[in-house]
Specification:
With 397 residues, the protein is of the alpha/beta class. It folds into two domains: 5-191 and 373-391, 3-Layer(aba) Sandwich (Rossmann fold); 206-370, 3-Layer(aba) Sandwich (Rossmann fold), CATH 3.40.50. The chain is 43% helix and 15% strand. The chain contains 13 helices and 15 strands. It has helices spanning 18-26, 59-80, 88-100, 111-124, 147-160, 169-176, 219-229, 247-256, 271-280, 301-308, 339-351, 353-370, 373-391; strands at 5-8, 11-12, 33-36, 38-39, 49-51, 105-109, 128-132, 163-166, 185-187, 206-210, 237-241, 263-267, 283-285, 312-316, 331-334. The strands form three sheets. The chain has a seven-stranded parallel beta sheet with strand order 5-3-1-6-7-8-9, sandwiched between helices. Strands 12-11-10-13-14-15 form a six-stranded parallel beta sheet, with helices on both faces. The protein has a two-stranded parallel sheet with strand order 2-4. Strand 8, helix 6 and strand 9 (185-187) form a beta-alpha-beta unit. The longest helix is centred in the N-terminal third of the chain and has 22 residues, at 59-80.
């Protein structure tokens, strides 16, 4: 049974959010419509989308909206502990779009977006699901001044939703610790395209790190650890793919350590480039930590992709990563900020490429069993279909 799904995101299209982009393109044959708050100014969308930025009321409606807004905000607060969903003419336009498109269910990518769209779904009686991925279940709920309000909003939304997904059990546990639960909860990693990530012949000494240069990735530790591990391996090189606020400091660090030729910074590259380099790499590094603002990983897609590509993974005991990497089988994990241990495992794998290859093969086999995106999408679709079936014949709202 097919299903007409609306997928809610912050910005559309957004090439930096690969899992959400893949959901839009692949779930239920790619026939979903999109709900967003803003459009990417330079990238064309490929399917019907309702963007709030496109629906600014004219002068006559603006006055009526202002008069009605306090009542709508008050009702949303009492029912949903939420005061910022679409109201007035924007709400009516959104409802008209959902009806015209024949939408049967809504899937919100990230809890932060779910809070925004949930009141409309509830009003129309549409099945509503939320996908938690990392920041939305960790740092977002820890900002001292805003955390109590956000937690109340999440409790109302998640408790009344038809179901929730999380990329790791860790995130469900983080939510539950704050009293945010739903009996229809599912752990479904983002997954990888196993057909595209078949291992290729490995380039000796190639080490890859891929991801944003941000606090929770601790890229400076990765640079230092690699330089230390590679002292006895003049042919080894670390290629780092991605950009972000810590890119320039990492480039400066590589110069300071005299490793400009051994640490290569590619910057942001298309996903196909990332896949090609992962397929060639015998070793993948990611030193994830809890960021100063509380931000944490969910289940990093880059690690899943590295395993699928047959790379031995060295990472940290952080968030959902221990559920991805089998220690001593497909890779090694160290405690957060254990730079010496991180470097030691990298050195051992550079010293013993045959062992690294065996661990990469074990990781590929694990990924085929656990991270195959096609199988994971079928699980998500089954949950959504079941929710629609449960609603059949039930009064809306």
């Amino acid at each position: 049974m097919t299903l007409k799904l609306a997928i809610a995101v912050k910005t559309y299209p957004d090439p930096t959010q690969t899992p959400a982009t893949e959901h839009i393109a692949k779930l239920f044959g790619g026939e979903s419509v999109v709900l967003c708050r803003a459009r990417h100014p330079e990238l064309p969308g490929t399917r019907p989308a309702f963007c709030l930025a496109d629906h600014r009321p004219g002068p006559a409606l603006r006055l009526a909206d202002h008069l009605a807004a306090p009542f709508e905000h008050g009702r949303n607060f009492l029912r949903n502990h939420n005061t910022h969903p679409p109201t007035g003419s924007r709400r009516r336009a959104l409802e008209g779009f959902l009806r015209a498109q024949g939408v049967e269910a809504i899937l919100a990518e990230f809890g932060t977006e779910a809070s925004f769209w949930f009141p409309t779904a509830r009003k129309l009686g549409l099945p509503f699901h939320v996908y938690f991925r990392g920041h939305d279940a960790t740092a977002y709920l820890e900002t001292p001044r805003r955390a109590p309000r956000r937690i109340r909003s999440y409790r109302a939304m998640v408790g009344a939703a038809d179901g929730i997904f999380a990329v790791s059990q860790f995130l469900l546990d983080q939510l539950a610790a704050r009293g945010i639960t739903n009996p229809n909860a599912h752990v479904v990693p983002s997954g990888v395209d196993m057909a595209r990530l078949r291992p290729a012949p490995k380039e000796p000494g190639l080490v890859i790190a891929a991801g944003r240069f941000i606090d929770k990735k601790a890229p400076e530790i990765t640079v230092r650890a690699f330089v230390e591990a590679a002292r006895a391996h003049p042919g080894a090189r670390l290629e780092m793919i991605g950009d972000g606020p810590l890119l320039a400091p990492c480039q400066a660090l590589a110069r300071e350590l005299g490793a400009e030729g051994k640490v290569i910074f590619h910057g942001h590259r298309p996903h196909g480039f990332v896949e090609e380099r992962l397929r060639a790499a015998p070793l993948f590094l990611q030193h994830s930590v809890i960021a100063p603002d509380g931000n944490q990983e969910g289940a990093p897609v880059a690690i899943q992709e590295a395993m699928a590509a047959g790379a031995c993974v060295i990472s940290t005991r952080h968030a959902g990563i221990p559920h991805l990497v089998e220690e001593g089988v497909s890779g090694f994990l160290v405690d957060e900020h254990d730079a010496a241990g991180f470097a030691g495992h990298a050195r051992a794998m550079l010293d013993d490429p045959a062992r690294a290859a065996r661990m990469g093969q074990a990781g590929h086999a694990h990924a085929a069993r656990e991270f195959d995106r096609a199988a994971l999408y079928r699980r998500v679709e089954a949950v959504l279909r079941a929710s629609v079936a449960r609603r059949a014949g039930r009064p809306a709202g």
